[in-house]
Design goal:
By secondary structure, this protein is of the alpha/beta class. It has one domain: Rossmann fold (3-Layer(aba) Sandwich), CATH 3.40.50.150. 41% of the residues lie in helices and 19% in strands. It is built from 11 helices and 7 strands. Strand 2, helix 6 and strand 3 form a beta-alpha-beta unit. The structure holds S-adenosylmethionine. S-adenosylmethionine binds next to strand 2 and helix 7.
């Protein structure tokens, strides 16, 4: 068994089937192939893809629990992280991948098709627009994002998309505790509850990483998210 798969099994009890392992192998080779043609991700080596993309995405399962039968939206997914690894792990999960950049969405669509992932789609859209659209507002059990924006901005992207009783999950680095403190007002205004931080370790990486989980306690009030571009220009602080 490859080292990264062994790590997931020994540390997190994630025991991927042969079919799931084969899907990750296809994802890896397609990512490398497409990266030669376009700048999809800065991580280009096999080891980096396995640890910084695949394992790092799978850490979300520690906090989300079993997502089979539930709906997840991944905002600013880029080349599909963390959404596609989570869909491989939870085949019965409904998945919506979102990015504002067309070529990234093209790659995500290609991967969903190539891996025959059912109940999943990739949308070229802005989080702010989806948060106001009836088909997406408060329709998801969980919303996730990695490396998209500071937490106050991210709360305005993610919280409107989740139903009360669901949660949002932000993958963050060492700044997580500061960002969580900075986001308190945004969380309160947008219908969230207290943030919980879970530290995560990845093999061979020194920097401290965190998962920030914020429960959605109440409906998001009308008027949020604000117009496209406003959350990032004028975060709720
Ligand atoms: N989540 C991926 C990962 O960790 O590998 C990609 C991270 S990349 C640094 C950030 C992505 O978020 C970009 O692809 C960008 O287009 C997208 N993005 C930023 N703001 C967005 C918004 N408001 N709505 C949708 N996508 C957004």
């Amino acid at each position: 068994m490859e080292k990264w798969l062994l790590f997931a099994k020994e540390h997190w009890g994630i025991d991927l089937s042969a079919a799931q392992q084969a899907m990750f192998a296809v994802y890896e080779s397609e990512l490398m192939l497409w990266n030669e043609k376009m700048n999809l991700t800065a991580v280009r080596d096999t080891e980096g893809i396995r640890i910084k993309h695949f394992l790092d995405s799978l850490t979300c399962a520690q906090v989300l629990g079993d997502m089979n039968g539930r709906a997840l939206i991944d905002i600013g997914t880029g080349a599909g992280f963390p959404g596609i690894p989570l869909k491989i792990l939870f085949p019965e999960m409904r998945l919506v991948l979102v990015d504002s950049v067309g070529k990234k969405v093209d790659f995500c669509r290609h991967m969903l098709e190539k891996l025959c992932l059912q109940d999943s789609l990739a949308l070229q859209a802005r989080a702010e627009d989806l948060g106001l659209a009836e088909a997406h507002r408060e329709r998801y059990d969980a919303a996730v994002a990695r490396a998209v924006a500071g937490l106050p901005v991210l709360c305005e992207y993610l919280l409107p998309l989740v139903r009360p009783g669901g949660c949002i999950l932000a993958q963050k680095g060492e700044s997580a505790p500061d960002e969580a403190a900075q986001a308190e007002k945004a969380i309160r205004i947008l219908g969230g509850g207290p943030a919980a931080l879970t530290p995560v370790d990845l093999p061979g990486l020194e920097d401290r990483r965190y998962l920030i989980r914020i429960p959605k306690d109440r409906p998001t009030p009308p008027g949020f998210p604000r117009r496209t571009g406003v959350p990032s220009r004028m975060p709720i602080l």
